[in-house]
Amino acid sequence: MDKLVIEGGRRLEGEVRISGAKNAALPILCAALLTREPLTLTNLPDLNDIRTMLGLLAQMGVKVEHAGNAVTLDAAGLDTPVAPYELVKTMRAAILVLGPLTARCGEARVSLPGGCAIGARPVDQHIKGLQAMGGEVAVEHGYIHARVARLKGARLFTDMVTVTGTENLMMAACLADGETVIENAAREPEVVDLAQCLNAMGARISGAGTDVVRIQGVERLHGATHRIMPDRIETGTFLCAAAVTGGKVRLTGTSTGLLDALVDKLMDAGCEITGEKSPSHEAILIEAPRRLKAVSIRTAPYPAFPTDMQAQFMAVNTVAEGTAVIRETIFENRFMHAVELIRLGADIKIDGNTAFVTGVERLQGATVMATDLRASASLVIAGLVAEGETHVERIYHLDRGYEHIENKLTALGAVIRRVKA
Ligand code: EPZ
211: exposed, middle or buried (C-beta count within 10 Å: 0-12, 13-18, 19+)? Predict the structure, then answer.
């Protein structure tokens, strides 16, 4: 298994281009299943999860054509509405084919995603919503079986805010008979990006980005071309890397409006952050002080502080001045990076879903192990400021969600290299 070797102590300086958003691209790739016409997507990130999803769609009979960071999907030949266990166990986002397949084919067999490192992550709300729309949905032998002649519009209420639950049900409702209203909907920008793509395909969705989304079902959707939005979690990860190294970095192809909560917290910590916008250009400029102040956070659904940035922000707090309290309210086991940060010399105490982080002057390089995607990003950030060499193992987690991260960090002055196992 590959690892990253990082020589800490370098201040990040320069410019980095932010890639397309993994968590917008994944549902939008599945939207191709809803039409017999070609869907072209641009600004697609080059990530393992994207390759996994494209492989799943191809297995179903979807034609996939690449051209640089664009892809054209043609689901006219869709003939196998099945997402097998072997694939779903490697990427739980495959659950996002459930809604589109049920709406397009009237049936779907999707492996029940197992748990994952950060939590049990059930999909009961996805199932409940399809049942409310008239779907016969059963879970047998580890698979979700959905059958229906045609889904019917319904009023749906999710018990908790669920991003992919909202996305699955929104896609299913596009072809339903009548109006669907999703209450307590997720407001994440990735949900808005999906809705914009679906409306470009002829869907009639309003309210995306608020907690009430209305979808007027239509008979069919047509092809379209859509540019994937910037990845706000990659944006946040590079902001944290610049902040913790006392750096000065311009992030291009992204904007502060995607993650106000994180920007506010980094400014509280002492960073200067400005947004740059022109018709042809958008960017964020961050300039960090030599040492940050500790800042407490509490994760919650958008627009609050994103759970996907909790691990990275904890790394920032490990060398900040003072003590920060970090509360994780979305997932039940999302502190696994803490024990690895402690191996680097961090002072962290965990009590249930709360972490108390007291900043130290310096971390010491060590060998640490990535356990999940964002935890691995947290360890890379810590390695950038640890004294000496840090070896981050099991970075296949990192490759799922960050496009060529070591190349981007090297271009900013970090000393980091990938060592093939
Ligand atoms: C999405 O996961 C993201 N993944 C996650 O990003 C992100 O952490 C999460 O939203 C929260 O923002 C994608 O978009 C592909 P949820 P999702 O459904 O949709 C519970 C990353 O690092 N829940 O919003 O699976 C669930 O257990 C990944 O890129 C149910 O109980 O998350 C969790 O506690 C990690 N039943 C909470 O709701 C359900 O049917 C929020 O989960 C659905 C969810």
Answer: middle
